[in-house]
Amino acid sequence: MANRHSTIPPALAQERPILRVALYARVSTSNGQDPEMQLRELREYAGRRSWEVMREYTDVGVSGSKETRPELNRLMVDAHRCQFDAVLVWKIDRFGRSLKHLVNALADLAAYGVAFVSLRDNLDLSTPSGRLMFQIIGAMAEFERALIQERVKAGLRNSKAKGKCLGRPRRIVDAARVRALRESGESWRQASIPPLLNEKRRFKNLSA
Known about the structure:
There is one protein chain. The protein is an alpha/beta fold. It has helices at 36-48, 70-80, 99-111, 128-161, 175-183, 188-192, 195-207, and strands at 20-27, 52-60, 86-89, 115-118, 123-124. Strands 2-1-3-4-5 form a 5-stranded mixed sheet, with helices on both faces. It starts with 19 loop residues before the first strand and ends with a helix.
């Protein structure tokens, strides 16, 4: 895996020729949306660049916010195996579900020696201008992460100022009772249940 703390992975420091590419397309719903439009433009672009299309990966009916996308997962595995030199997508938002995910995924591809090209965004990470754009994207991701952290800290400070108790409520444990229940053969799970809740469960079982 790439170093997530570095904005620009070492693999982006050198240019390498692109001969074999993988195409990735995604549509959020199968109703009226067809990934073929994206793939057609990607095939034409690859043809103009004399790139050989090794495989096409398509996620249909999968939201961009989903943690898991089957075809994208397969693409990353094949990239790790160096089955192609670059990943070609129609737009960045078809690939990354968030700014953080995009930066991490691009860093992983770079660590594998695989370039990334976004057709509509004119982004080619195999070129100097593309690497500069990736630096900007990485800086934006770090800025977004810092903003989120600051908002969380501000929310916690505000809650404390209002006297709210943060975290799980404290539970007072009767050690003698727990010991007695354990000696009577109760499990740790049963012994840890508060007495009142235990009585309610026993009453429910008797009345069932």
